[in-house]
Design a protein that fits this description.
Biotin_lipoyl, Dna Ligase, domain 1, 18 helices, single chain, metal ion binding, 8-stranded antiparallel β-barrel, 8-stranded antiparallel sheet, D-amino Acid Aminotransferase, Chain A, domain 1, ligase activity, globular, alpha+beta, ATP-binding, Rossmann fold, BC-like_N
Length: about 675
């Protein structure tokens, strides 16, 4: 076994590998960019070395620098995690040349399976069922167009290299193909350095079922059952579960055996995942991921195994710890991916400081894999995943109930997240009834992403009470600094001579002014929202952002976090955002005109589609912005004339800057 390994990754997966290595008595070396100097994985590792500036091309993708660190620190092996260099055959070859063990499959397996086109040609020869498609090397548009006609629309345009939904488009008619091909090629080139594409028949309502496989250098290969990853948006997985529900046992076995056959066809070694589409009793090979998957914890929960430990043992030359007939599964597990992103804005990634980050308590049923802590920042440079929430129980219904509870308990303040969206999926009747396929989110979009509702009276009351208690504490602190500690003024309890005292607050709920009046009472308060019936409040306390009170006869707990004028309330699993009304600030915000189109996040301008003086219709695309390796289209909010274009293709832009100015047509 290795004495020391280097982890060529960051964030959650780096922390995950470190935990297993530490348990096995293996020392770890972390590498990090300048932006990650104080990151969680850096502090967890035994040693850490900076490898360059924040951009991944100057740090985490610098295989030569990483191998130099391995040499200098005496690391005997490199664990690549997932993403970055994990499926880079060139890096695996460089490791071999440097005499460092690459904790992953053989170079040729990475190369073959890294090309969706070549892997599918190989699978066809191995009699693994494939979706009808085109996997050829001729990338001329005329060829792609002819092949799309042969396959029949709708077709799926996919990047041959890479994954994660990047470089992927659904094309429903021939008229859409040219734009889809051009966009997919640009995304694929930016993300993977390879713009080659393949085409597949787009199945109507398939499920995405994948098999976890493991092989060693002694000729042994097993499958560790399956995961259902059908809940996706933009072809990226959102919630995964194991085992796949309502899958016939015969299909499970045949799919597992096909996955092992696929792995052995390329002399595979280590952990890998063979992905299939399943529909109407048939299953079709999609691709093989030659690494550990993001969703591997659900397999660990139902098998009781540590897949990272298996990786390390196999890479060190050991045989697989178990054979196929020794593998068993128990119970059901879910994984939900918590991201800093805004579901209401088409899942745009969000950046900012994690002002409050409190996950649910971990136990035998709940596990949290993360690479960030409270006070850390989500930046523009890396994937905005905050954590993976994994739950387990004896059956699917029980596990799903635990998922809903754990999501409701997760507290994240400082960045917009998808926690509420995940909770909506977990609570949806169709999801509970296993009416799932890869189109689930789009089909139920109206249920999962309803228009923002007004902030509840309960949340408004909690916010107002928190503001009042904090101001009272500040007043008491100021008085203590200059008064006798027995002074009656330190009570600050709202008492007034000969009249009732009350406290008025104006809070902004989006663009709506909400008015809250708090009346002081001998045993607490009464709270009236928007002139409504006062609610009695007793037993109020506030500690570390947690407000506890009996509100209108009901014991209530809410987390309230105030940042300047901004207030975030987490109550009953819902997140409400309010702003203390400041008339001067509101006036300043309203200046500048509605025709200024700003960058929704930091990124790079890919294309400018209009020029100054050009007239455009509502919804017309004006500019393409690339952020987090995904393209986002800036569209005209209304008909008008472009009066200014402030950036050109290739320019880097910050969040909030004015990209274009549009003079809105009157009427």
């Amino acid at each position: 076994m290795f004495d020391k390994i280097l982890i060529a990754n960051r964030g959650e997966i780096a922390c995950r590998v470190i935990r297993t290595a530490r348990r096995m008595g293996i020392k770890t070396v972390a590498v990090h960019s300048e932006a990650d100097a104080h990151a969680m994985h850096v502090q967890m590792a035994d040693e850490a070395v900076c490898i360059g500036p924040a951009p991944v091309g100057e740090s985490y993708l610098r295989g030569d620098v990483i191998l130099d660190v391995a040499r200098r620190t005496g690391a005997q092996a490199v664990h690549p995690g997932y993403g970055f260099l994990s499926e880079n055959a060139g890096f695996a070859a460089a490791c071999a040349e440097a005499g460092v063990v690459f904790i992953g499959p053989p170079i040729e397996a990475i190369r073959v399976m890294g090309s969706k086109a070549e892997s599918k040609r190989l699978m066809a020869n191995a009699d693994v069922p494939l979706v009808p498609g085109y996997h050829g090397t001729d990338q001329d548009f005329a060829t792609l167009s002819a092949e799309a006609e042969r396959i029949g629309y709708p077709v799926l345009v996919k990047a041959s290299a890479g994954g994660g939904g990047k470089g992927m488009r659904v094309v429903r008619s021939a008229s859409e193909l040219a734009d889809a091909v051009a966009g997919a090629q640009r995304e694929a080139k930016a993300a993977f350095g390879d713009d080659s594409l393949l085409l597949e028949k787009y199945l109507g309502r398939p499920r995405h079922v994948e098999i976890q496989v493991f092989c060693d250098t002694h000729g042994n290969g097993v499958y560790l059952f399956e995961r259902d990853c059908s809940i996706q948006r933009r072809h990226q997985k959102v919630i995964e579960e194991a085992p796949a529900p309502n899958l016939p046992d015969d299909i499970r076995r045949r799919m597992g055996e096909a996955a092992v056959a696929a792995a052995k066809a390329v002399n595979y070694v280590g952990a890998g995942t063979v992905e299939f589409l399943y529909e109407d009793g048939g299953f079709y090979f999609i691709e093989m991921n030659t690494r550990l998957q993001v969703e591997h914890p659900v397999t660990e929960k139902i098998t009781g195994l540590d897949l990272v430990e298996w990786q390390l043992r196999v890479a060190a030359g050991a045989e697989l710890p178990l054979r196929q007939d020794q593998l068993t599964r128990k119970g059901h597990a879910f994984e939900a991916r918590l991201y800093a992103e805004d579901p209401q804005r088409d899942f745009l990634p969000a950046i900012g400081k994690l002002v409050r980050l409190r996950p649910p308590a971990e136990n035998d049923h709940v596990r949290v894999d993360t690479g960030v802590r409270e006070g850390d920042s989500v930046t523009m440079y890396y994937d905005p995943m905050i954590a993976k929430l994994i739950v387990w129980d004896e059956d699917r219904d029980s596990a799903l109930r635990r998922l809903r509870v754990a999501l409701a308990e997760y507290e994240v303040v400082g960045v917009t997240t998808n926690v509420g969206f995940l909770g909506a999926i977990a609570g949806h009747p169709a999801f509970r009834a296993v009416e799932i396929d890869t189109g689930f989110i789009e089909r139920h979009r109206a249920d999962l992403l309803p228009p923002p509702a007004p902030v509840s009276d309960k949340a408004l009351a909690a916010a107002s009470l928190s503001v009042l208690l904090k101001r009272r504490e500040e007043a008491q602190a100021a008085l203590r600094a200059r008064s006798d500690r027995y002074s009656p003024w330190l009570l600050a309890n709202g008492w007034r001579l000969n009249e009732e005292n009350h406290y008025d607050l104006r809070l902004m709920d989006g663009d709506t002014v909400r008015e809250v009046t708090l009346h002081f009472r001998g045993d607490g308060y009464e709270v009236a929202v928007d002139g409504g019936k006062p609610m009695p409040v007793t037993g109020v306390s506030l500690a570390d952002g947690l407000l506890t009170a009996t509100l209108d006869g009901m014991r209530t707990r809410a987390t309230v976090v105030q940042q300047g004028l901004d207030i975030t309330v987490l109550i009953d699993g819902a997140v409400s955002r309010l702003t203390l009304d400041d008339p001067s600030a509101r006036a300043a915000e309203q200046e500048g005109g509605s025709g200024r189109l700003s960058a929704p996040m930091p990124g790079t301008v890919v294309r400018v589609l209009v020029e100054a003086g050009q007239s455009v219709e509502a919804g017309a695309p004006l500019m393409l912005l690339e952020a987090m390796k995904m393209e986002h289209t800036i569209k005209a909010p209304a008909a008008g004339t472009v009066s200014a274009v402030n950036f050109a293709a290739g320019d880097q832009v910050s969040e909030g800057v004015d990209l274009l100015v549009l003079d809105i047509a009157e009427g």
